[in-house]
Amino acid sequence: MAAANCKIQDHAFTMNICRHTHGELSPRHFAPMLPAGMPRKILRRSLIFICLCVSACSEPSPAVYSIETLGKADRIAKVTQLFKTTQRTTLPSPIEDAQLAQFRIGDEDTALTIGPRDYETYLYVKLPVDQIDAWLRIFSRLDGPPLYTAPIKAYPPRMSRSDFSSLEFYDADALLPGRHGWIAVSRQHGELFLFTHTM
Questions:
Q1: For 37-48, what is each residue's pLDDT tens digit?
Q2: Which helix (H) or strand (E) holds 51?
Q3: pLDDT (tens digit, 9 = 90+) per residue, 108-122?
């Protein structure tokens, strides 16, 4: 029996269907109604878009705020004021030195921006060794060591990865309420290393 040919057409495609002798329908031709080369163009643009996203997210920006160039007295004043303006009017003891830097993570000003920008803040605080216990009394200890992280640049001062596990870890909320992060404490040297980040 000769096959019966029929043509089915809609907005998306044109398909020729051939009915074979056993009565089943099988597609014989499929031709999308798109300009020639369009799928390849879409793929190429998609790859370019992905590359832009990867490059934007992989390269960190320089510090957007830093007190590195300030004198010691001004650095201490800045960090002391930061702690006092976050719901704490007095500190357990004076600060001997401090460093602070904030970095933007996730995009450059000239790159494609997707979603909100993320920030990482690093604080280094030098305290009198005999006052460390007074500071620890206002901290809440973490259950275990957090993930090691270090500034993009060698500022502010940070502990090495090998020394990290020997420190004591506390919630950053004690000094910077509402922030996600941790405080790493060196009792021996009277040092606080603070790390916070946006989510």
A1: 556 656 555 555
A2: helix 38-58
A3: 543 444 445 688 999
